[in-house]
Amino acid sequence: MALGAxxxxxxxxxxxxxxxxQDVRYFRIGTGETGGSLFILGGVxxxxxxNPPGSRSCDDGGSCGVPGLIAVAQATAGxxxxxxxxxxxxxxxxxxxxxxxxxxxxxxxxxxxxxxIADLRAIANLYQESLHVIVRNDGKIxxxxxxxxxxxxxxxxxxxxxxxxxxxxxxxxxxxxxxKPAAGHCRSRQAPAHRAPAGGGREDRRSAPGIxxxxx
Length: 216
Fold this sequence. Notes:
about 220 residues; alpha/beta; D-Maltodextrin-Binding Protein, domain 2; about 25% strand; globular
């Protein structure tokens, strides 16, 4: 199932802030859980845009980033926490699913009570993201309907994936109340089913050992 895009966000005032060549600035990037793909991606972005004072020039094989900028990838629960932290000034930027960023900008869904984050801006559209529902190879689950009453891993509370999973379940006629939310993953045997976001396609999950996709 295609979800749209994963992007890098930042408040408008940071994008407009001028800087002298040797001013030292720290740029905090909210990512995801440590060890996850978003944390790794955030670290790569931080390395590319950083250019600390005194480092070798780009022509000499050093950093080609923004002069004086030191970017740091910060571990978080995911999209919802990242966007909220940007709005409160705790983060300078963050990775977010496109739907979560839209809800934050408009003040809808989980952001309805706190209100819209009107200064939120997109820096880059990083990649198209997909969501897979996966089950254990040795299990008997063959369809979405058979998840009723089973333990399903949703991920961290403040991750955008949990909200997206709720929309997928609703489309399949299921709700969290009819499931048993679990913190584990299929491979750990703590949950027979798990939702897994990925930048790759369906084949990426088919080739993973110990898990498979429901037939329908």
